[in-house]
Amino acid sequence: MSGSPKLVPTKYDALVVLIVLALAVALGARYWFAPAREAAEIIVSIGGVEAERLTFDDSEYDYTNNGYTVHVTVRAGSVRVDHADCPTQDCVRTGAISRPGQSIVCLPARIILTIEGAAAPDYDAIAG
Amino acid sequence: MKTKQLTTCAILAALALALSYVEGMFPLPVPLPGFKLGLANIVTLFALYTLGAPPALAILLVRVLLGAMFAGNASALIYSLLGGFCAMLVMIGLSRIHKLSVYGVSVGGAAAHNAGQVAAAMLTLGSATPAVYLPVLLIVAVFSGALTGFVCSLLLGRRLFRLWAK
After folding, report:
1. Rounded distance between C-alpha atoms, residue B45 and residue A1, angstroms
2. Of the four, A109, B28, B40, B114, which is 20 to 30 A from B78 by CA?
3. Which of A12, A47, A108 has the CB atom closest to B104's CB atom?
């Protein structure tokens, strides 16, 4: 259809790779190079709405939304989803998070756990 | 549309469906939501080069719709639809640039696919949080795109058949 396609990488392919990588760095810079801050709170967002704010004390919670339940365990300085009955299990595989800006997303249940730092309003505005 | 072209489309759609189905059965042990190798993209790319844009788009649509039905998960439809269409548009555009090889087109398509899926996640969650995953997903797309580009170059160059003939 479009003639004979080139089958061996050209230097223009490298340009595509560079553009993709540059985009990644440009988008990631604000997350990766954000100043280190102390983790203050865990924001639980359910269905796009902030539902609860948790502090870092030893406790466990169950959140149910969209027909799925995620079990959240909070320890001093870290939070993780222990188990969930969703088909994808991405939230469980994310493991424990501890730094501000990090988040655990459960797409089927539409639940997001985000760690918020002590201060830096502009960054939190971006991370949602 | 000739019968041969119709049959080729049907076979490729079935192949794409099988690839995405098998891929879904073995989730990669990576804590990245929505991360896949995008094996079905091999078929999309192959169809784009051999049959042209309209049949490739039709194959994509059939694969995505049937894939959602097979998975019994209609909510996943928006992810594959948005991801698939973004990838398709970028690959159609890039394939017109004749200085690019299948590798460049494939990497661009993989990056667009991941960007589309992140956009879908942002839409369904009503939150900007999934954007955090985009930088890593873009870097990963370079590798998965190169892999699908490699497989596609084998298919298009018929080197695979020569390997079998030995």
Report:
1. 12
2. B28
3. A12
